[in-house]
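U., I forgot to send this yesterday:
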Amino acid sequence: MRTLDESHGRKTNNLRGRGFSLIELMIVVAIILIIAAIAIPNFLRAKISANQAGAASTVRSITTASVEYSTTWSDGLPPTLDSMGGVAAPATCMGALLIDPIITTPPYQKSGYVFGYFPQGPAITNPPPGCAAGYSAYLVTALPISVYTGTQSFCSDEPGIIHYDPAGGAIATPAACEALNELQ
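Result:
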């Protein structure tokens, strides 16, 4: 834009009013940082809550699949977490196709949690041909990988009630699981 320089009668370039000053840019950056500082912790809490809800749901799925395995194969409760999964049809007692393969293959992780399935009690005698011996009881656990993925651990055993530890600790036995708070 050209303006008339009134003192000399010449036209000059008016560079004022173009762009932002350094201070204005620094203020905008500071405002963005303040908004990010408020939003990021809320996002992390929401992600942890979603991971915990997913872990509790997965524990419920493993519990349901254990009962279905028992009734389908007449071999007691599953001998391993792997035996409830599988990827190739047809279903067998060693790959029952009851649960998502992500959960039933090492490292048994999903949504920031590690899942464990531990047979309990005596093994079933005389399992069906080609099947590993099932068990009379089990313990399912879900432990957070870190405090950034979850703060609670979950467990369930053959009554099918999900329990949780608000501190996120490891759960070693069915008795320790049943001593924890029930998930409502």
